[in-house]
Amino acid sequence: MSLNHEPALDATEQDPSTDPPQAVDERVIRPLQAGELVLLVDQKQRRYVVQLSTDGEFQTHAGSLPHGELIGRPEGAAVASTRGQRFTVYRPTLSDFILTMPRGAQVIYPKDIGPILMLADIGPGVRVFESGVGSGALSMAMLRAGADIVGYELREDFAARATKNVGSFLGDAALSRYQVELRDSYEGIDDHDFDRVVLDIPEPWRVIPHVPEALRPGGLFVSYSPSITQVIKVTDELRRVGFGEISTTEVLNRTWHVEGQSVRPDHRMVAHTGFLTRARLTR
Ligand SMILES: C[S@@+](CC[C@H](N)C(=O)[O-])C[C@H]1O[C@@H](n2cnc3c(N)ncnc32)[C@H](O)[C@@H]1O
To answer: Is the distance from the beta carbon of residue 154 to the nearest atom of ligand 1 less than 6 Å?
Structure first.
């Protein structure tokens, strides 16, 4: 995905009187309105997420774009900055938002988040224990799939950032299914009867001894780790405490250039991000 990682405007500084658009029925075709998040894509495919306000302006190196030019327009409309730079405007997808949202900790990228949802079999009503929550990227995807999350996070600023990101994109209603606690998950998991445990922390093997008490039999465990030495420790510990069905996957995502006679893999790809280790609790 050729998403640009230039800092976006802080799309989470929302007008509290306005519901985010994602809380609204997606099937209804509505013109863009003040308070909504929009995605602007320029001619070089650079992407920016911006929150519309009646007197706001999007500033670029090629002039400014008054938000008033966007409010009332349909998605997919073409607009131009004061110096003729052309943009197409859309409502952002979750992937757009994750790649441009304000971050505390490093996020898990959409290429891994999608597979994690399947590996952990996340769906409506599933109770998830997550640690750490970081910037809330993975939390957002699991909440949108309908999960209820208890998250342990060490850092107060990251917990606040994750909560703010969730509210900005999914709306405040999603926060009722998102309980973030300032806790060290290496020290234990207080709650029980979770259906899933999903970890993205430096030493996940230190949480695994606590998982059999917290997870229901047959429950799924998924851990994301950048390094294979972490995976080895996780796998050894999963075996030791009685997990079965243990597997590790790496997701490689290669895009293609398709234009006329020039059809080939893109020269650049994000090759390695992390390993996904999945297991099920036996009794
Ligand atoms: C890489 S970030 C998680 C990113 C997150 N998965 C996302 O997609 O936005 C790792 C997080 O784990 C937290 N963390 C590290 N050790 C922890 C521990 N023992 N207990 C709870 N949180 C921890 C860090 O503060 C950090 O926010």
So the answer is: yes
